[in-house]
Amino acid sequence: MGIFQHPVKNAYDSAPADISGCLELTQATRSHIACGVVRQQFLQVMGL
Question: Highest taxon of the source (predicted)?
Answer without folding.
Answer: Bacteria
